[in-house]
Structure prediction request, 563 residues.
Amino acid sequence: MSTYALTDSWTMTRRELAHWARQPVRVVVGLVFPVMLLLMFGYLIGGGRGVEGEYVDYLVPGMLALTMAFGLEGTMIAVTQDLDKGVIDRFRSLPMANGAVLVGRSVADMLQSTVGLGVLVGVGFALGWRPDGGPGAFVGALGLLLFFRFAMLWIGIFLALVAGKPEMVQAVQILVWPVGFLSNALAAPASMPDWLGTVVEWNPMSRTATAVRDLFGGLGTDHVWAAVAWPLALLAVFFPLAVRRFAALSK
Amino acid sequence: MTQAAITVDGARKKYGEKQALAGLDLTVARGTVHGVLGPNGAGKTTLVRILSTLLRPDAGRIEVAGHDVVRQAYAVRLRIGLLGQHAALDEELGGRQNLEMFGRLHHLGARRARARADELLERFALTDTGRKAVRHYSGGMRRRLDLAASLITEPEVLFLDEPTTGLDPRGRAEVWASVRSLVGGGTTVLLTTQYLEEADQLADRVSVVDAGRVVADGTPEELKKATGGDRIDVVLRDAGQLGAAVALLPVDRSGVSVDPDRRLLSAPVTDRMAALSGVVRALEEAGIEAEDVALRRPTLDEVFLHLTQEAA
Prediction:
């Protein structure tokens, strides 16, 4: 049974890749949206409250973290649609490895986020952003971002399995915005009222954004532990919850 | 291994307060088509979900193709096909892509999965639309593809949960033809339906289910006989003459029902043609005007009401 775990997970990943090939416009829109946000905050709305130095050096890492957080939505929509269509029932009635459905989802979403990071980094470069922490720190920063995305992914799967209905996705889509913006992605917490600054500092997304800024800026690794610990803690809670919830479909 | 393809012994399942299955028993012989007939909420879908390992029963011993659905779920999954009430397909992908994917998930390997997909597309007349995304398919095409997907490995036991609900007459005929062609191959089919006609067309035996229990089973003929067989319906011009008509018609008076609102009287008959000509002649002689006289089979409602009243 477990000998097929890899084959089945790959088949499920291929399914997602085939979706991309069928819907190239949707993929492109998904990639362009964060770029649009980056340009909007960089040139229209932003200015970076309380940010010292070049705003682009502050904004680009923040937008990278924000994009990873928004990935939760995409994961949740995809899982909810599958549940709604009944295709998960067919998967579950097949002699395939347990969990291959979830693994395929994870691999595909991580691939998509990696491409998304690549595009945003490219646009950042075009805007004049120059990370100067060296290649090791650069790769490390991307690793932290993807690790954060991985935690968001399992929260997304869990929420989809709990909510189950497309209507609930809308609620989460709306909630993701205040949670995303209650962070230091766009503005420095020092510029906010004390209580708000504290909330923002504790947002796991802020931890990742801060650590990534330091790594890109060559400012050391003091904040890396928090950018590892928070996603790890979220995974420790939501990964088992999601897996249990998936198994509970048979109850 | 027993001779039966499906054995259900005292299956129980409760959702919160609602008792979906209340000790259901069922045996289906290999290579036969078994109909499970009942209204909405009778427990048909719950039964199919338990038999196809999607749902765990609260209690009961349930075997499919010689394996326990709870303890040997994997072995059961190797041997079954499932056509659920809603198309279980990837709507974004094409028909061929769907079949290939399910073939790979059955571990056929890439080449055999591809060949099998082509075979099934051909067999279900879907070759021309194999590349089109499933969400552009008509209801009948989608159902055929769904059926093809449940036949990837030529299953020993095939579950069809209300396979024609929501289809137009043409789609229904297509699905019926497909099911008939399967049975020759030795596949055991368990079919749930709300339509007596469907059970009649396809099933060797029928179990009538109500409130999570089997209230009767037998061949379709036996069930219909149990409810009094065929009926004759007479619609009169004047509802006031219904009483007079009942008194003089040459039918079995104990089984007559009268509906004044519709000016209708309905009676069981044994010899169809004799009853028809007898009724027409009697009405003519008595000068009672009729708008309509028709012979018909009992409806599911009548079979069902009859059987549930008997059980109560």
User: Anything to note?
Assistant: Chain A touches chain B through 25 residues (CB under 8 Å). DSSP finds ten helices and no strands in chain A.
